[in-house]
Amino acid sequence: MQPKRFAFVGTGGRAISFIEPLVTQYRVHNELVGLCDLSPTRMAYYNRKLAGPWGYHAVPAYPAADFDRMLRETKPDIVFVCSKDSTHHDYIVRALHAGCDVITEKPLTIDADKCRAILAAQEATGRRVRVAFNYRWGPFRTKVRELIAGGTIGRVHSVNLEYLLDTNHGADYFRRWHAHTAESGTLLVHKSTHHFDLVNWWLDAIPAQVFAFGDLVFYGRKNAEARGDGHLAAYPRYTGEPRAKADPFRLDLDKSEAFRGLYRDAEADSGYLRDRNVFRDDIDIYDQMSLNVRYRTGEVLTYSLIAYSPREGMRVTFNGDRGRIEYHEFIGTHMNRAVSPGEFTIEQKPGAEAEGEWIRVFPHFKPSYLVPLPPATGAHGGADEILCRSFFDPAAPADDPWGRFAGHEQGAASILVGIAARESIRQNRPINLADLVALRPAATRLQNLV
Ligand SMILES: NC(=O)c1ccc[n+]([C@@H]2O[C@H](COP(=O)([O-])OP(=O)(O)OC[C@H]3O[C@@H](n4cnc5c(N)ncnc54)[C@H](O)[C@@H]3O)[C@@H](O)[C@H]2O)c1
To answer: So what's the pLDDT on residue 142?
Structure first.
């Protein structure tokens, strides 16, 4: 069998999670043929890793402006999109028209126009698009899917999902491009796409209508000054700043080999600063969001996300007509530190004591019970490892019993909740998703979408 040829666009922190396994564990069946990014320094960092510790070889590195030339010269079968969220649609569309399949990091894209452009390009070319929804592949979350699909609590009518990002991981989104709606679509798209996808997939349902609130109450200069923390807003960035020595929000790019090589040394390439002050003026995303979603099949989701919590994790409850399932996942923070999957660690901070993961079923009229959990190790609760196998191992089953492969339509079904929520906040009214993007109007179940 010919090895599958992969080209990557976007060689920041996240791409390591895919490139390293591809060229080590999965190199027999796959080939890395090219890299593309705005920053030559970041690509050179990858090429040093490829030729050094990963025991592969350097590959051609193309500036972002030469993406099409990369496709012509390296002839990839699959383009892996790991760039900034607002650029995904452009690379997906161009890769599809060049005859490639695409795997894209979440979110599929950040607004309705870009989403329609992706759907149109896929329809015109017939090529395959997959979204790397690693959360689905976490063994505990798959267990929840199994319980619901198996009718453990009968038909589910409502879900509550509370997600907490802590002052380490949550703050990290306010240090860089994610803090701008035009680049990330806000956390309602960038982050919540994971959570909306989980609920769509757990319920096998398609979202139809959203009403939302969103505010910036903690990060940003005004909020710091209002609560007497104005001194934390006094400098534009953290690295090399003597006044930031005792600042609990500081990130020192000089302290890690990966951060130095990927970001600090690359600042002149594109002006990307990875450690900007989280209490600066130009933040235009929310750090507190709450919303309700109604699905085509009648279920209701109550969702909240806050990004300034002392602890990190999620609490999900499902109410069915035969009982209730509670799923707790409090395992500490997992900020993306641009390390290889094998070195990934969950970080504990004071105040963030873990209570671990558990699933408890409360049947009507019977005692509750804890559900035995499958083993899970590695990055993102074991999800990244299983996801990589699904992408890179030809022996991995093409038909997943739990429907964990997500195509462009399922990717759209999740971002559209966040996009509609943004619109709902702006217009102060409920938004119908069908008014944003018409996603197979006759479909009722998520599995009816590609
Ligand atoms: N599923 C997960 O758990 C997970 C975790 C982290 C990040 N992500 C996703 O991965 C992607 C990358 O995130 P990251 O944390 O590596 O961010 P990053 O900022 O470290 O990397 C982004 C890269 O995109 C490049 N880039 C920006 N504009 C570009 C353009 N026009 N053309 C080409 N390259 C461009 C930057 O130079 C940078 O190298 C994002 O889409 C993010 O949502 C997913």
So the answer is: 94
